[in-house]
Amino acid sequence: MLSEQILNNHSEFLSTLRHRFLDETRVEALGKFAQIGFPTKKDEEYKYTNIKEIIEKDYNFFPKESHNITKEQLDELHLGEENFDWIVFVNGVLHKELSKISIENAEFLSFNYALNDENHKDVFDKYFNTIAAKDLAFTNLNQAYCKYGFFLKVPKNVVIEKPIHVFYLSQNQEENTFYNTRNLLIVEDGAKVEVIESHHNFDETYVFTNSVTEIFTYPNAKADWHKLQNDNDTSYLVDHTFAKQERDSLTTVNTFSFGGKIVRNNLDFIQNGSNINSFMNGITIIGKEQLVDHHTAVHHNQPNCESYQNYKGIFKDKSHGVFNGKVFVDKIAQKTNAYQQNNNVLLSEGATIDTKPQLEIFADDVKCSHGCTVGQLNEDALFYLRARGISKKEAQALLLFAFANDAMQNIDIEPLKEKISKLLTEKLEVSIEF
Fold this sequence. Notes:
Elements: H1 2-15, H2 23-36, H3 52-55, H4 71-77, E1 85-90, E2 93-94, E3 107-110, H5 111-116, H6 121-127, H7 137-145, E4 150-154, E5 164-170, E6 177-187, E7 192-201, E8 207-217, E9 222-229, E10 235-245, E11 250-257, E12 262-271, E13 277-286, E14 291-300, E15 306-315, E16 320-329, E17 337-346, E18 352-361, E19 367-375, H8 379-386, H9 392-405, H10 414-427
Parallel strand pairs: 1-5, 4-6, 5-7, 6-8, 7-9, 8-10, 9-11, 10-12, 11-13, 12-14, 13-15, 14-16, 15-17, 16-18, 17-19
Antiparallel strand pairs: 1-2, 3-4
């Protein structure tokens, strides 16, 4: 059982780390985890998502570092990224020989290196674990065991022109493997950066990734984070992303979920100033017995801010989707404009979706809307296309592509948009010319 391993392995894990300035907080976090325990279906937030399959397995906490990832394997994962930077972690270790890093005028470090660097202690004291929720099992578990991931600080008015694609790869693991990845992004006043994150398991053994990301966007800054989730059926992912924004900033988190056996995405936006824009978009298309769960929350704490959530889901076979979106509007957050929409299409009788948009509004001068739909393809539209010589399969794919397409409209990275479009057509099992 994973819970027993967690409590038994912690002393051994701490002994492998060279630094000591997080040890006390790690022990404290482990104690909180022991009190909370893993969520069950009796917990409201996990009512529709059963993680029993994940936590009943045993895992190796110390992955083998050796690998034989080839350039060809890596090329298959790229998006046509000749003009990108990319950062490759294999079995938790940053591999510069597989990476292309040309970032200038910004601080980029592997998370493990940053933890070991006394020069960054003040930065970690100021930012690390300050917006991540303190009352959740998985965030406490991550704090207790985090070692892998990256730290990026973009200084004032620095614009990083090239998107940065961060790959987390796992290979050559003979046992089920447990990763706790931790990312910290700081985008100072007037700066700009775009990050793409993807996880890939090359083994038949199971990989469980418990990831926590903290994003800080300062005044007039722009931070975009794109999650491309297209892993195999022996992969589990629980992701928590927390974004704190200051006045006049823009932050976007896009989540594209096409693979993985069980995927749980938790996304929290904290608006800490006026004239803030927060964007969340998601596309999910899964089949077989896969499960993808999106839990979002936007905290409107100041006036004259906007948030936009648009999640589309397409579910085949016996797959299961979950969407729970929350919008909180504080009593001083007048002139708030919050939009939330979740639309879903079920392609099979065995496919299911549980959706629950929520608004909690304590201000009176706001414009807030939410809604959800669950249905099948429009028969009239299918008939119209088939009457013009288009096969049923192609007609279905065209309608589904159009259904999902508007959730891609704010992607500024053209190769990423093309990759998402191609993945959509692959999942729809039909060829569509763009």
